[in-house]
Amino acid sequence: MIFNMECEVENLQKKYGFWTATAMVVGIVIGSGVFFKADDVLVASGGSLPTALFAWLIGGSIMVVTAYVFSKIATRIEKVNGLVDYFEAAYGQRAGYLVAWFMTFVYYPTLVAVLAWVSASYTAGLLGAEQSVWPVAAIYLVVFFCLNCYSPVLAGRWQVSSTIIKMVPLAVVAVVGSVCGLMNGQTIQSFTHVAQTVSSGGGLAVATLSTAFAYEGWIIATSINAELKDAKKTLPKALIVGAVAVVIIYMLYYLGISGILSNDQVIAAGNDAPVKVLAIIFGNLGGTFLTVFVVISCLGTLNGLVMGSARGMYSIASRGLGPKVDFFNQVNKKTNSTINSAFLGFVLSVFWLGVWYGNFAGWWNGFMDISELPIAFLYVIYISIYVWVMKNFDDLGFMGRVIAPFLAGAGSLFIIWGAIQKDMFLHFVMVTLVIMCFGFVFMNGKSLSAKSGE
User: Fold this and answer.
1) Lowest-confidence region among 74-78, 306-310, 384-388, 410-414
2) How many domains would you assign to the chain?
3) How many Cβ atoms from other residues are within 10 Å of residue 172's Cβ?
4) Which domain holds residue 195?
């Protein structure tokens, strides 16, 4: 069965090409996770570098296989919001609506909130003003939502530019760190000596879940498929090229860190590990300069996530569903942007930023990790898509129809298992269920009403 599902969206212009789509894949994925999850992966691996690298490899392999499966779907379906379109084609309009609701109210804004905080953390550290992290995070939210509302083309250009810029610190750490580590023996020591500061880790599944955040975000590139030129050819190529590039870059970068810092030093440095590595390589001044590139890297990821969040409610309203359809379905004629939808995305991001703040303020008597748990929920949706592909895409060969979806599904289950072991997992499930119940309440609109009257 070949699916060819198209929808003419006259209000959204075809303004993006292959490089913007690829930059979204690479730029959203590479941004913050590779920097501030380095120590988390090592801790979860029990301080063992080989185990940590294996976790990075598993996480990357899952991403590549998943991107491959979605690239096959992208050649068949072109509508308004990639993943939502695919789920709708598979299981119907109501199912697609609920996925869109989850993406709009949970997935996008949680990651936007975390990325705003990460960007602000590195900015505050650079300026020596650690107490200003949360105000700076709020400022970043305002700036990038405004950028995507009033100049979406400029936002796309920033995505491409920041993606190129962020390669600088990663390449420097990968090359210089690896060479120095092999010459002075630090790399061998990191491979053979387990960190002494870790009593026990969460295991390979939990370590892989931590890498999942660092590898996450590529699916958001599908949110602009209605605005891509020749999307059915452009998007699949961007997904595959971007995913493979990310895995290679991550592995080399992590090896570079292990050549400069011992496992114990990486854990002790925490989120500042990349800053310390750059300072050791280039001295304090050079390290400070390259830290600016790290901040730009994080802001590039933030911008890409905001691009998806700004279109979240629009993807629901464009189907004639949800509350205030006519309001959220509007596209600004002057800027060609979904301003009303973006405003809701901004409000939701502020809400989740408050939840993230509560973790550090001790409000929950635990740590609700909204940087990882929403991703695990997304993998549940992925599994449903894989089942659909295996049942219906009979024009694909055995590899494309059976092997790839099966491997992607197995990887997804591994990620989900890691999430179940996280603190406050059940609490997050309950919050998500409450939000989804509100989605059921608003499951109405012109489209479903029209169908019920036929």
Assistant:
1) 74-78
2) 1
3) 19
4) 5-376+418-444
